Fold this protein.
Amino acid sequence: MSNSRFLTALACCVAALVGCSKDGVQTIASPVPGSGVKFYNFSTGAPSVNFYANDTKVTAVSSTSGQESTSGTAYGAVATGGLYTGIAPGQYTLSGRITAATDNGLAIASAPTTIADGKYYSFYLSGPYNTTTKKSDFFILEDAAPPAQIDYQMAYVRFVNAISNSSPMTLYAKNRTSGAELPVGGSVGYKSAGALTPVPIGPYDLIARVTGSTANAITLTEVGLSPARAYTVSARGDMTITSTTAATRPILTNSTDR
């Protein structure tokens, strides 16, 4: 994806350090920062949160009244519709803070980090939410860009494992037309990401398997991979849940990065 196309997409994101207004409606009044963060609430059982960079709120949800909703980013969701939030380079503490009236503003995770110029990152709330300590696990990843010389017959996919009680897993892409299957990177443990891997464009079922096993552990069907796009496929949930409908069951979530 060219720099101009990426900046156009980024311009749709919340511009951090400009901040959200009190009613939750974003204000864009300065140039879009050259770095960004994507925020995931993948901590099972976690309350809805807004995300902050230091004490600046960088994600929020507006209600139909135009006022900020207390719903925030719920479990299983990616903030700002899966877009990056622009953040100027520098030292920050990124946090997820409860949006509900009870414990409003309490940080369930705080992560000191450095945002480098021109770099993009993913901040995950992960693992089970501890209702006693009111804390979640978390991790931050740098998001690799596609190669400078993009092959427009390819999409670029990486796999992230946000399931704390999983064994290392490998993601496979199975073409729905040909049935051909290929691994997407290698084995990925908890709090880790696989390599950004070129995958021929087309319709796929995405399958996560415990490394070394032929059994499908998690499946996401009917995923279209478009030319020159970069995607992150994240595993979330609890591997002990066998229900096919429980919100905390193991799930794959696909997010377009670029």
Summary: Confidence is low (pLDDT under 50) at residues 1-30. The helical segments are 3-10. The longest strand covers residues 120-130. The chain has two domains: 3-142, 154-256.
